[in-house]
Design brief:
66% of the residues lie in helices and 0% in strands. With 136 residues, it is mainly α. The protein has one domain.
Amino acid sequence: MKPSDKTMVHFYQQLGKLFYSIAAVDKTVREEEIKQLKKIVQQEWLPLENTFDVFGSDSAYQIEIVFDWLAENDCDFKQILPDLKIFRSVHTSLFTPQVNALIIKTAKAIASSFAGKNKSEHVLIGQLNALLENQQ
């Protein structure tokens, strides 16, 4: 069964939080990280599927919207991975091997966009990889 538009909006919001945490884990969200995220959303996430938010925009734009809001409001990101784990346990069908690979690809691209991955980004991506590989 195809997930509802509402479920997909929540999915992309979770990803926006996740990608924000990758960018913010070193305490600074850099312009290069934002540009890299927007590029990948355009090239990879928008073509992935066709669901829309209540305003008629592609649901994948929620990644950028949530990321930007969190960056503007300097939010704490420590609860993001546990929240993603809960979301994943409820919506396991959304986390296909293709989607998991794209999540990791996006996270690595954000982390590498400014002076390569630092230790904190590397650790967070390792935790994300473990979460996505875990088939609970």
